Structure formats: structure tokens, C-alpha cells
Structure prediction request, 590 residues.
Amino acid sequence: MALPLVSVPMKKNKKPSLVLTLSAAGLLIAAGSVAYWLLAQRQMSSSDLLVGANIIPGDALFAVSLTTDPQQWQKLRQFGTKETQTELDKNLVQLRDRFLTNNGYDFQKDIAPWVGDDMTIAILAPATGNKPAPKPVTTNKEDTASDQQSMVMVLPVKNPEIAKSILAQPKTLKQGKWIDRIYQGIAIKQSEGQTGQNFSAVLLDRRFLVITDSPKATERAIDAYKNKTSLATTGGFAENFPKIANYQPFAQFYVNVPTAAKIAAASPNRPLPAQVLAQLQNNQGLAGTITLESEGIRFKGVSWLNPNSQRVLVVENKAGKMQSRIPAETLMMLTGGNLQRSWRDYVLTSQGNPLSPIAPEQIRGGIKSLTDLDLEKDLLSWMKGEFSLSVIPATPKEGSPNDFRAGLLFMVQTSDAYGGQSLRKSAEASISQLDDVMKNQYQFQVQPGKVAGQPVVNWVSPYGTLTATHGWLDGDVAFLVVGAPIADKILPKPNYTLASTLPFQQTVPTEPNPTNGQFFLDVERTVKNFPLPTLIPNQQTLLDATRTIGMTSAVSDNRSNRYDIFIELKKVTNATSLPSPEGSKSNSVR
Prediction:
């Protein structure tokens, strides 16, 4: 099997195609390759950083490190269904043929004997700075264009002699020729006269073969390596990336948030407002590690603020109890540690942001117009504890038709997150106001009732259908059920809870602990019983390959957040090997 993403100097297609292909490949893997992760405790060292982090320029837009182990790639292909395997094979074959086969290279013969365990591809944003960059030897239009956005590929070398010989005698180009030049005392092999990009390659300290698609990108990589202005020295990178380090990962990635925001702001299609760009400058990086396990894909992620940002995070990890209040048959659960603070964070990052799913002002206005209540003063003021949102299927009852197949359950603890005084009186006053609105404005019947001996209030629509139920659990947890009448599934407290089920325990990560939020979705049961809106391309194919999804998050410190995600996947029976280069030339997607 030939690894698809390893490359040596060769001819490429036009720049937009290359960047889109590499970005898509990185995002596909970063998202789980379906984009996610066991942490092996090790001492902090250079091995805990992204491969080539000391070479990639610090202002790189995106970087992804991929394993060169064919067995791991074969393991990836065992997950999913025949349909997802076919889609994955199309991408792998296309990339392998473009980077290797079509240019006369074979991974096992030409690359495997000298390459290390991982390789890294980075996308560089256009160069910035006051002083002009040194003029390269070749000055054609293609070199100028390639400097606008370029690629750097770093391949660790485990056999310097073989790598040196390949660099000294590269394959003959179908078009153009190879030339030699020197930059800062380092020899560079560079292609010239090709249609498309002209590639450069350099061997740094006999330990790294660096390949780029423009002469200027090569010079930027050499400068970053020599001047210590690489990704490894970027604010917060060396401190945060080791938090997600793992032994023999399948992939690792890094996203430069402020640089990505600047590029998005400059986009003519969807520019970011100045105030949004300013907010995003508070964030510095997003990084993740992907590992393949026996039952699925694990992702460990970390995001951190700019070291110079005035904003700090509140270290408050108080979630983890709600999953023990809901029944085992729950299809979906989302929890958080402090709803009031979560809302403030959402407002801070979403105010005026066109990329936000719902603008904060729309939420405020909608609640005000529907209920005449002020979101912050009347509701969130007492919602300072853990909260959850769950979807629970209804149990059909003979002779009792129901218009809803599931109930939506919202729960929130009214006590202060740090064990302070209960805010139940404030909550009861607001809920009473809400009862009056439902009765007087919408003509609902507001009827007191009991479930398992506990008092509740039912809202019944003018047509006689039980629409909602609210009440209290354990004295300080308010709940609201909308849709199917499933209050009897939480009152009394269920003996068999979601937290005690095997799917939850095997899917939702136990780290980080303590946590400020968790997520669980039984994809297999949900898709089977409920139609879902289409949000991404090939969504149904990906859903058909997935069993469950679990996530655990926490505020790591006052400048970083941690995320662990596990995706349990189905497996392909008798997974085949990747088609050979000879057999794939006529079948691969061009």
C-alpha cells in the first residue's frame, strides 16, 4: 500500500487546486475522517510538539501532521461502511496518485526507506513584514503568485544518506529542469520552467527534508528555523500543545485563529466586521491529536487565548451530575457547568458575528416578545448552576395517542455553582410570571398536578394536548419538559440512568476531570427513529457509519480550554487494501 500524502519535489497543478486539496485533506482528518484520542503521560519535550514545529513559520495558517505508518492508514479504512470506505479510498487514491504515482514515485520504494514516523503539511498565509523578502533566483509570475499562499511540507529523515541521494538525483521532470541555489549558506534544489508551481527542496541538518511550492516559502522556512521564529515559539503553542500529546497518533493539527480571522475578514464573500475581528484576536490557537482505537476515533483538543490578551477564563468545572438524573434510554444529552456564564461567553464571542448560529440580540428579543421576560434579569440571574438539555423518547401508552415521539427536557440547578445560597425563590417568581403569560396571552390551561407524588405544573394547549410540564428535582433543580409527557421518566429519580449505561461509559471520555460540560448522542438509535436536518455534505453516509458520539470539556486554566471527543464507528467486514497505483489510474477521481 502506498501512503497518499508523502511527496518529493515534483510537478503540481494550479495553486487554488493544491491549497483546496491539502486544506480539505487536513480538515477531513481533523474532523474525524469519518474528524477524534488517549493521552499517554510523558515529560514535556520536543517530541510533544507538532512534527516540524521548529521549521514551520510562526504565522502559518494551518498545519497537519500525518502518520506514515501504512498499518494505521489500513486501520482507518476498517471503520465505517462500504460507502464511507469507498469515499475515503477515492480521496486517498487521488492524493497518492497526484503526489507520487503520476510523478514516478512509489512510497514503499522511494519514501519509506528514509522517512520518519510522521510528516507535516502547513499552509502559509501571505508573507507580512516591513522589510522586503530577498529576491529569489527565479522571478516569474508563478513564483509571485505562489507567495500569496503557499505550502511547506516537512519530512523527518531517519536515513540521511538515502534522503540526500534522492535530493541529489531527483526524478527527471516532464517539463522544465532542476537548478541549484544557496540561501543563508544552505543548498536548495529548485525546479524551473514548469507550468504551475516551481518546487523547492532542502535538507536541514540532515534531519528534515523540507519541500515547498515556492522559493519564498523555502526561504521563510529557513529563516524560521535559524532565527527561532517558528511555530514552536508562537505564543502559547509550546505550553498548550503538550496537553494533547499522545503516543503514535494518527494525526495532529494546529489552526492559527487570528490569522484565519484576518483572511476571513478580507474575503469579499463574507467579511468579518471590525469588532468581530478584534474579539477573535483574543484567541491564539486551536490544536488537536487524533488516534485510532479498536472501536473508533479519539480526539484530544485544546484552544488557548493570545498571551497578550486582556481576556481571561474563569476556571469553573462544576458539571457532571445531570447524566445521573436522566433515564438510560436518553438519545441525546448536552450539559454545562454554569448557564449564566455560558451565555456571557456566547455574547462575548457572538455579538455582531455573522458566523454565529443565532445572534444574541435575536435571542433576547425573541424571549421578550414571546414571554415579556427579560432574559438576563428574569431568567439567567438564577441559572448559575449546572444545566442540561436532553432528548428522551416517549413510551407509547395504549389508548393514549401522543403527537410527539420524544420529549425535550431542560434542567438547571438554581444554586450558586460554588455551593452558595439557593436562588429558588427568584426562580419561582420568574416561573410564576411565565405561567401567567401562557394562561393569559396564549390561552393555555395552567394546571397543577402530580407525578410520582411530586407536585408539577402542566401547560395544556387550547386543543387539549399536554404540551409542557415543569417542576423541581432535589429541591434546587428546575425542569421543563416540552413535547411528549416524559416527566414520569425523571420522577422519581430513575434507577437505571444514562450514566450507568455501557454506551455512555464507553463513549463519553472520562477526561478532563473535573469537567464543565459533556455531550452524548446515540447516533444509531436517533437516525433510526427521527429525521435529522441536513447540515453537511454526505451527512447520511457519515451518520450510517457512526454508532455514538461523546465529548467532555473543561477550562484547563485561565487561558485555555480542553476537549476530548470519541466517535464510536461501525466496521467494514473484510476491509480490502487500498487499490494499487497501477489499478487506480483508471479508477481514481481526477
Remarks:
- The two ends are 20 Å apart (CA to CA).
